[in-house]
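Task: sequence design from structure.
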């Protein structure tokens, strides 16, 4: 069988989109969005209140698949619009018809230009793709999500950047085991996280040691020569909206702007983050923290919250103060802030593995990976999908090494 014979395009039909959108507008729960096969419903057509209720009951937190965040991403964020939704609904009494599982997805063709029949967790801008699964009906939710993916023509699900030892993955593994299947971890790494139940000063002493802390105090004193150093937390929608503009300017003034990745450099990205942060702030799920020297903002960061976990989304700094480590100084204050909050037990850095700034400070580690989930036992198509993903990753890693080499040559002094 050639590649052309097995290609399945998982696409949206206009009729299905209009029907799903009309159903959501009428306030009806799409209890079976793919009853006889066909594309999942557009994510934009999802009713928000059932989504929010599921998030409150989720077996594992994910601040980037909250309705306020992901719908904003899906509406305007560069390269991340037009996702669809795999949904699991329950009509089991006494709960009534309610959403028990949700995973935003795109086709494998769109995600990696691999024309094979698989669905991929949609990129929510933050690096976490753990699906929302009802803690009280986890196995039913997983079964229904898999059934809906099969109904859409998929032979596998690729979950990107999921916590491989988390409760959601445990439920998925259990359901697969019932059918004699196992998930395949394609790539795994460890990233920094914070145990916010600990005393912050004790944690920082253990992580950094007296010598490094003394150097950071010296830098903070030098920073204070430009004005009193203060740490501010914006929580209300109005305060978050104002603090966000400061963050956007700081982020766009540094290396991210030089690489073209600052949020302010793309109208769609800027619209997404403005909508998402103010909407989450209204729900008490977003803060923007700012470090100032006098009246001058020297660093700012966006932090989202879901259940008892915080998510450190992005950091922007004024590079004129780079020798005084404003990003580190802000992170130290953020650490104390989170450890002092009884509602927060942990924080996910959502950073790359081995991040030079956060790894030495937050010494906890989360196991994160890309996981391929087969949707039927002994399906030879899954092996083909696996092979395609391995080849894609090999090409990606080669390209990354080339980019690093070119940048290193460009950054060397003449």
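Answer:
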């Amino acid at each position: 069988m050639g590649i052309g014979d097995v290609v399945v395009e998982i696409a949206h039909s206009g009729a299905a989109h209009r029907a799903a959108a009309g159903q959501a507008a009428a306030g009806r729960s799409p209890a079976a969005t793919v009853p006889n096969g066909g594309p999942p419903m557009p994510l934009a057509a999802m009713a928000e209140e059932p989504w929010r209720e599921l998030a409150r009951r989720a077996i594992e937190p994910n601040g980037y698949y909250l309705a306020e965040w992901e719908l904003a991403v899906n509406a305007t964020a560069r390269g991340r619009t037009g996702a669809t939704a795999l949904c699991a609904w329950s009509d089991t009494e006494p709960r009534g018809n309610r959403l028990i599982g949700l995973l935003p997805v795109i086709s494998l063709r769109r995600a990696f230009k691999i024309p094979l029949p698989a669905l991929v967790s949609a990129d929510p801008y933050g690096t976490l793709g753990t699906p929302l699964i009802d803690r009280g009906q986890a196995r039913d939710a997983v079964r229904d999500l898999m059934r809906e993916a099969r109904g859409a023509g998929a032979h596998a699900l690729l979950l990107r950047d999921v916590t491989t030892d988390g409760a959601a993955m445990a439920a998925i593994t259990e359901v697969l085991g019932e059918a004699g299947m196992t998930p395949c971890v394609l790539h795994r790494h460890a990233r920094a996280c914070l145990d916010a139940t600990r005393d912050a000063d004790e944690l920082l002493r253990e992580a950094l040691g007296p010598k490094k802390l003394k150097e950071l105090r010296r830098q903070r004193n030098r920073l204070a020569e430009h004005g009193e150093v203060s740490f501010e937390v914006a929580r209300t929608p109005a305060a978050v909206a104002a603090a966000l503009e400061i963050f956007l300017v700081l982020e766009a003034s540094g290396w991210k702007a030089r690489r073209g990745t600052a949020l302010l450099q793309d109208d769609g990205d800027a619209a997404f983050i403005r909508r998402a942060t103010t909407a989450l702030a209204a729900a008490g799920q977003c803060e923007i923290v700012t470090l100032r020297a006098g009246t001058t903002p020297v660093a700012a960061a966006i932090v989202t919250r879901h259940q008892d976990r915080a998510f450190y989304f992005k950091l922007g700094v004024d590079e004129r103060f780079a020798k005084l480590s404003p990003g580190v100084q802000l992170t130290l204050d953020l650490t104390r802030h989170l450890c002092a909050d009884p509602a927060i037990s942990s924080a996910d850095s959502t950073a790359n593995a081995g991040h030079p700034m956060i790894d030495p400070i937050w010494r906890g580690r989360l196991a994160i990976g890309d996981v391929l989930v087969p949707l039927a036992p002994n399906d030879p198509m899954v092996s083909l999908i696996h092979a395609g993903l391995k080849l894609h990753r090999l090409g990606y890693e080669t390209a990354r090494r080339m980019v690093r080499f070119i940048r290193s040559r460009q950054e060397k002094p003449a």
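The longest strand covers residues 184-195.
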